[in-house]
Amino acid sequence: MGYSGKLKLKQEAIKLRENGFSVKTIQRKLQVSMSSVSLWVRDVKLTQEQIRKLYLNKRTGALRGCIVAAMNKTKKREESTIRLVEEGKKEVGNVSRRDRFIAGVLMYFSEGSKTGHSVVFSNSDYRAIEFMASWFREFCNVPEEKFRCYLYIHDNLDEANAKKFWSRIMNLPLTQFRKSYIVKNNPKRFRKAKNINGVLRISISDVNLHRKIMGWIEGIFDPF
Predict the structure, then answer these.
(1) SS3 label, residue 157
(2) Which residues form the domain of 127?
(3) Which of 63, 83, 120, 141 counts the highest number of beta carbons within 10 A?
(4) Best CA proximity match to 172, nearest among 146, 196, 198
């Protein structure tokens, strides 16, 4: 490129810079080196408004890049979660009656009362309560009238709605729910997950059933 060609590019660069374009944008438009553009426009004084816009554009570009990267990361994590959940379900396969029996014994071992004379199971996850209610009916032959339910809930939550929720899960009338245990809410205490329906405790007054369940537990763990 001759001298006149370079001079023309320099003049165009200066004009673009005076209009508030960034050095990188000028370099891209004129297809010359960054060093040439920097040299040509070094004496051009930008207004405060032009400087502000350049700064915001730079910040916006960086922010956009961060947002896109975060979205891509979230999407990959969600896809990985879905894939692993599906793999886990396939690995479990069909659940037999004996599988359900053993699962119930282990759930009781984990969340049930091992002392006293009553069978007691507590949980905040409706799936655990639903499963164990069915388990007590199927494997323990518990009559419907022997179920007693107790709700543990914070005082800033709706006790009546929570009882209705658990009544549907348990498939039991509200008459079989006893007085709730109301816990005073501490607004200063951060709780990662709020159980809007509280914790449900299933109670079955049957010392012989309690002893039998303890025997089932021993039968599983004795070999170890």
Answers:
(1) coil
(2) 97-221
(3) 120
(4) 146
Give a yes or no: residue 173 inside a domain: yes
Q: How far is CA 39 from CA 1, 35, 45, 89, in A?
A: 17, 6, 13, 64
Instruction: Report how many domains make up the chain.
Output: 1
**Would residue 107 count as lying in a domain?**
yes
For residues 51 and 104, what is the distance between their CA atoms, to the nearest angstrom? Answer: 68
pLDDT digits (tens, 9 = 90+) for 166-199: 999 999 999 999 999 998 887 766 555 568 999 9
Phi, psi of 141 (to 5 degrees): 55, 40
Q: Output the 3-class SS for 179-202.
A: CCEEECCCCCCCCCCCCCCCEEEE
DSSP 115: S
Phi and psi dihedrals of 187, rounded to 5? Answer: -65, -20
Whether this model's pTM surpasses 0.70: no
Are 200 and 129 in contact, with CB atoms under 8 Å apart?
yes
Query: Rounded CA gap, 158 and 43, in Å?
Result: 69
CATH number at residue 163: 3.30.1330
**Ramachandran class of 33: left when φ > 0, alpha when ψ lies in -120 to 50, beta otherwise:** beta
Is residue 206 included in any domain, yes or no?
Answer: yes
Q: CA 158: distance to chain centroid?
A: 23
Single-letter residue type at 10: K
CA distance 31 to 20: 18
Q: Structure tokens of 15? A: 């004009």
